[in-house]
């Protein structure tokens, strides 16, 4: 071989120092040492173990190395090899080893191997130092980033990034300071009306833009000493300094009028509104409690209809507590199997026979009493009006509606084995109608139960369909494609448009009971019903009149040509086990 030189060692040092980790540096050192010394095998040992090997399998070399000092190495497929090693590191940390066939290393080669080992040790020390410095730098950068993020989060916790208004945290701090003063303080809790419709139809970016404009209008309605805040979502709060409730009410109405004006969003005029609750307090009031009182009053305003202002009264607390209890119980009810279905037959008015049933949900809420069996409303059952509006509001109606659909579908499939013409009507809420999974839920019910699509009619209230007719038409089209029937429930109580009624793919009109609420319908009542029946015939729709409670009403509806009827005179809602008997013979004559 050629005599080694300082240049060779410099190249070796540069090559070994290039990697940024020990493993790579050791691998380079082994490869270069074996190459320069023309060795078949190269390796680095740590302790008694081979860490990196070249020219032979590491485990094979590990097992073949002699336990003590030796100059010969035997490996399968290779001649006896002459081996030599050199330690590296200030304290012996390892050895650089080479093994080659033929002549052993001469003194100059051994000197070169020793120099390479020392160079490797220096390189590893340097890498360890650089690694420690890099880790220290990364740790400092991470700590600096965490401090910056903490500062940013603290700022965001106090100021809303979207509107620039104080957040709930800062608002409560300001309110707590004001409540240390003797002057009265009023809090307005502002909840936007119809904001979700804007967000859903125009997108979240448009919704964020709208919230920014709302914040600006709120600021414009306030004095410099007052404070506006974004509490979360589409909810805002206003602190009126040195103001009692009597003076807070005009401010609330001023805010409502400001928010009623159109907003220019995404190139179009957008109309929303607001409902506002007011609560007032002085020294000694808790800030959280006062804001909570305003929230309770806002909820009452929402119940009264959009665009209302309500001042908090202590009695509202009991209502709020009852509502919270009802919400908690309702969330538990589905998992605890507390819902029951009763079925009210649809009676063909000419024959008096039952042709189908409408599924009616009841809640066997613990503590309400003990349910009775055959006829509704059983004692201890919570009627739909007692919990469905709340379920609609908090979104639970989707899960409840899915349970009703599947349970009633399975029950109807069982009855149809004996009464193959039996049909099932199921009520559908507005939230269900706009749920992207609803059509799939209906299809899955048909598949799982084996019901033909024509056996199910979905009932939707007129107010739901007419509140957004375009969306309703699109949603109903998917259901129509499945082949299920569609009915408008409570027809005549909403604000229907005949032009949209023609476009809605419905099969049935259910005439609201309000039109025959008298024991003997008047001429005016009958005229309205006759008009609806004639309209239905023109549109080729079935008619079902609800609330038939007397024989006179039954006779009048039959004379007017109504197809079907429901009501206590015809048949009360029944427990499932009583349905077969109801279909066995005519129920009325």
Automatic annotation (TrEMBL):
Occurrences of domain GGDEF (ranges): 183-314
Domain EAL residue range list: 323-587
Recorded hits in SMART domains, A to Z, give: EAL, GGDEF
PANTHER family the record matches: BIOFILM ARCHITECTURE MAINTENANCE PROTEIN MBAA, DIGUANYLATE CYCLASE DGCP
NCBIfam families per the record?
GGDEF
Protein's UniProt name: Bifunctional diguanylate cyclase/phosphodiesterase
Q: List the source organism.
A: Actinoplanes subglobosus
């Amino acid at each position: 071989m050629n005599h080694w030189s300082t240049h060779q060692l410099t190249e070796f040092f540069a090559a070994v120092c290039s990697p940024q980790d020990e493993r790579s540096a050791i691998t380079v050192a082994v490869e270069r040492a074996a190459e320069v010394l023309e060795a078949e095998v190269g390796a680095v040992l740590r302790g008694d173990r081979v860490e990196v090997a070249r020219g032979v399998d590491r485990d094979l070399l590990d097992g073949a190395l002699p336990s003590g000092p030796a100059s010969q190495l035997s490996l399968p497929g290779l001649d006896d090899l002459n081996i030599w090693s050199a330690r590296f590191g200030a304290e012996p940390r390892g050895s650089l080893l080479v093994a080659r066939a033929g002549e052993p290393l001469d003194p100059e080669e051994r000197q070169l191997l020793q120099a390479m080992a020392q160079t490797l040790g220096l390189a590893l020390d340097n890498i360890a130092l650089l690694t420690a410095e890099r880790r220290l730098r990364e740790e400092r950068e991470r700590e600096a980033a965490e401090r910056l993020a903490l500062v940013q989060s603290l700022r965001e916790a106090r100021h809303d990034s979207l509107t620039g208004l104080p957040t709930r945290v800062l608002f409560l701090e300001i309110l707590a300071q004001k409540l240390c003063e003797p002057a009265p303080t009023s809090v307005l809790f502002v909840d936007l009306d119809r904001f979700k419709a804007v967000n859903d139809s125009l997108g979240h970016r448009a919704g964020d833009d709208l919230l920014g404009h709302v914040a600006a209008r709120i600021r414009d309605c306030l004095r410099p000493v007052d404070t506006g805040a974004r509490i979360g979502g589409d909810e805002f709060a206003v602190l009126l300094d040195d103001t009692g409730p009597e003076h807070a009410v005009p401010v609330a109405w001023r805010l409502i009028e400001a928010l009623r004006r159109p907003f220019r969003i995404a190139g179009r005029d957008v109309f929303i509104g607001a409902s506002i609750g007011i609560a007032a307090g002085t020294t000694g009031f808790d800030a959280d409690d006062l804001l909570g009182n305003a929230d309770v009053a806002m909820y009452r305003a929402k119940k009264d209809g959009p665009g209302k202002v309500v001042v908090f009264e202590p009695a509202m607390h009991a209502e709020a507590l009852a509502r919270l209890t009802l919400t908690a119980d309702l969330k538990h009810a589905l998992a605890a199997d507390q819902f029951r279905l009763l079925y009210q037959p649809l009676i063909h008015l000419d024959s008096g026979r039952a042709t189908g049933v409408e599924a009616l949900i009841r809640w066997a809420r613990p503590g309400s009493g003990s349910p009775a069996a055959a006829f509704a409303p059983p004692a201890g059952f919570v009627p739909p009006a007692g919990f469905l509006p709340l379920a609609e509001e908090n979104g639970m109606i989707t899960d409840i509606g899915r349970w009703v659909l599947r349970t009633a579908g399975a029950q109807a499939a069982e009855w149809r084995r004996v009464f193959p013409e039996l049909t099932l009507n199921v009520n559908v809420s507005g939230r269900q109608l706009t749920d992207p999974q609803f059509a799939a839920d209906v299809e899955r019910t048909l598949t799982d139960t084996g019901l033909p699509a024509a056996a199910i009619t979905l009932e939707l209230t007129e107010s739901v369909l007419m509140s957004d007719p375009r969306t309703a038409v699109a949603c109903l089209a998917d259901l129509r494609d499945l082949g299920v029937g569609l009915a408008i429930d409570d027809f005549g109580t909403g604000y229907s448009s005949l032009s949209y009624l023609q476009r809605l793919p419905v099969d049935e009109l259910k005439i609201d009971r309000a039109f025959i609420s008298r024991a003997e319908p008047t001429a005016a009542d009958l005229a309205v019903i006759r008009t609806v029946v004639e309209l239905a015939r023109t549109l080729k729709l079935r008619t079902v009149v609800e609330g038939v409670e007397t024989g006179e009403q039954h006779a009048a509806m039959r004379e007017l040509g109504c197809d079907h009827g429901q009501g206590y005179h015809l048949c009360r809602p029944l427990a499932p086990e009583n349905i077969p008997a109801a279909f066995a013979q005519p129920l009325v004559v």
